[in-house]
Amino acid sequence: DAIYNETSWCKESDCSLKDRTGFELVSPVYDLFDRDRWTQDFDQPLIHPMLNATHSSSCGGHIHLSTNKYKPDEILLGLSGFLHILYSL
Q1: Is 79 helix (H, G, I), strand (E, B) or coil?
Q2: Which of 35, 49, 56, 88 is the least crowded, having the fewest Cβ atoms under 10 Å away?
Q3: Interatomic CA distance for residues 42 and 37, integer angstroms
Q4: How far is the C-alpha of 7 from the C-alpha of 5, rounded, in Å?
């Protein structure tokens, strides 16, 4: 059960949450070096209700990082200076 809108964000049902109305909000794939694109998306009123949804103690978050230029250990090494920031999110 996925719901898309013109923002390219996806609202998917998530059975790991306590409430049947719980959902996971999945963003489109972003190029982290294209700041204009991802900051514009966060300003779109259509995603504000999903970003400001109610939450519970079973909510969490995760980030996927990928590239086809580097091996996983090279990615981890390159991100090592930023891991404390990612963990704090």
Answers
A1: helix
A2: 88
A3: 9
A4: 5
pTM, whole model, 2 decimals?
0.56
> Is-contact 47 7, C-beta < 8 A?
yes
- Could you tell me if 44 and 7 are in contact, meaning their C-beta atoms sit under 8 angstroms apart? yes
- What is the per-residue pLDDT across 50-80, written as a single tens digit (0 to 9) for each? 777 777 776 777 777 777 888 988 988 888 8
pLDDT, tens only, 25-54: 888 887 777 778 767 777 777 777 777 777
Q: CB of 59 within 8 A of CB of 23? A: no
Secondary structure in 3-state letters for 22-48? CEEEECCCCCCCCHHHHHHHHCCHHHH
